[in-house]
Design a protein that fits this description.
Elements lengths: L22 E6 L8 E6 L2 E8 L2 E6 L13 E3 L2 E3 L6 E3 L4 E4 L5 E2 L5 E2 L16 H7 L8 E2 L1 E4 L2 E5 L3
Antiparallel strand pairs: 1-13, 2-3, 3-4, 4-11, 5-6, 6-7, 7-8, 9-10, 12-13
The structure holds FE2/S2 (inorganic) cluster (FES).
FE2/S2 (inorganic) cluster (FES) binds next to loops.
Length: 160
Amino acid sequence: MIADRGAPTPPSLAAPGTADATFRDALAAAELPPGALRRVTFGDHDVLLAHVPDGILATDDRCPHMSAPLSLGTLDGCVVDCPLHSGRFDLCTGGVVRMPTTGGLDADGGYHSPWSPPDREPRPEPTDLKARARAATRVRRLRYYPVRIRDGRIEVAVPD
Ligand code: FES
């Protein structure tokens, strides 16, 4: 199926400067089938395009934890799985589905302990400097860019 629309995104999570940003050509819609993730770059700005069940959306191609490229993750419905610390984020709501393995702070400042996959030893609470830094790292909220489809091309409104 070729995408014909942008997916609705949380209005409170619009990226700054997008209200009057110009739409820019990003990708042929046929190159982003359902379930696909792709990075497109405008200057030094990397944007993630995702084809979720309700259409196509655009957010930063930076994990809201430690900035890993979500475009290298996997998408299941609306949920993207980050390739670096296994955090899971709902692209349709902007919310965290699973905190990263490192634990740390959620967007509201709540602390979450480190965790390990079921086949590994549990991780201890942070003690050394690097572990304390990870524990104090806050998972940010995703920010979205308006998307539209014109003549079979995906266009994204990204500020200059
Ligand atoms: S960078 Fe994505 S979960 Fe850590």
